[in-house]
Design brief:
This protein has 143 residues and is an all-alpha fold. 85% of the residues lie in helices and 0% in strands. The longest helix is centred in the N-terminal third of the chain and has 58 residues. It is elongated and about 85 Å long.
């Protein structure tokens, strides 16, 4: 009889350990999910901003260098305040449903899909704001 009670107590201990581990993992996933989603959205926003900058560079007749690399260099040289301005502009046009689509364009290197998204989703006034930031930083970058 004593063995039976001991086995029951050990069973409850094992169950309590398993439930504690599951609870800790669940809480960890809950809190890190938002961080991961935010990082993914930031990466998508950065890619869209660089794409807008690239299209602005193509329209600038003074530039003969690789537009994609130059767009990345200009974006990297921007102040955090200007980057936040660009991200805010892109974020206002980016819906939760489109994040996955744009992320797949970025992951697969689908430049035409990214350009089509920018053409259809980013307003002309937002493009003009990003263009003004391009002109602010373009002279700081060596071609």
């Amino acid at each position: 009889m004593a063995r039976r009670e001991k086995r029951k107590r050990n069973g409850w201990k094992a169950l309590a350990i398993v439930l504690t581990v599951v609870l800790v993992l669940g809480v960890g996933i809950f809190f890190t999910k938002d961080y991961v989603v935010a990082k993914a959205e930031e990466k998508v926003q950065d890619a869209l901003i660089e794409n807008v900058l690239e299209s602005v560079i193509h329209s600038d007749s003074d530039v003969a260098a690789d537009a994609a690399q130059m767009a990345k260099n200009i974006y990297d040289s921007m102040s955090e305040e200007d980057k936040d301005t660009c991200r805010g502009l892109i974020d206002s046009n980016l819906t939760k449903e489109n994040v996955a689509n744009v992320a797949s364009y970025v992951k697969n290197g689908d430049a035409s899909g990214l350009k089509n998204y920018v053409k259809s989703s980013v307003s002309d006034s937002d493009k003009e704001t990003i263009k003004s930031l391009y002109h602010k930083y373009k002279d700081q970058i060596a071609y």
